[in-house]
Amino acid sequence: MFLQARPQFVKVFSSLPKGGVDLVTEALVPLSPTKQPPGHAVGFFEQGIFIGLGAVVLGIFPSAGYMVWCGARWGMAIWKGV
After folding, report:
1. What is the pLDDT of residues 58-68, one digit of tens each?
2. ∠ CA(49), CA(52), CA(3), 5° rounding?
3. pLDDT tens digits, residue range 5-22?
């Protein structure tokens, strides 16, 4: 979507201002490269998914570990009492 230039006029002109043809040709000139590697890394939405999953995991794992620890203590207390 952002890789190809699609210049547009925001204001509708009844006639192009002086040098209007130069304005259009200047708008169609390709942009210079950014000299950055292609974007094969984690994108914007993937970062959000990872942050959400991390928040869920940070909430579930400690809770599950605590429940297992409490269950093991309860089980050991019952086993020793028999």
Report:
1. 999 999 999 99
2. 25
3. 677 766 666 666 665 566
pLDDT tens-place string over residues 23-40: 777 777 787 877 777 767
Tokens representing residue 11 in the block: 């204001």
Q: Are 5 and 30 in contact (CB under 8 A)?
A: yes
Compute the Cα dihedral for 12, 14, 19, 22 and give only its sign: positive
| DSSP symbols for 8-70 | --SSPPSSPPTTHHHHHHHHTSPPPP-----S-S--HHHHHHHHHHHHHHHHHHHHHHHHHHH
What CA–CA distances, in Å, run from 58 to 49, 50, 51, 63, 64? 14, 12, 10, 9, 10
Round to whole Å and give the CA distance between 55 and 63.
Answer: 13
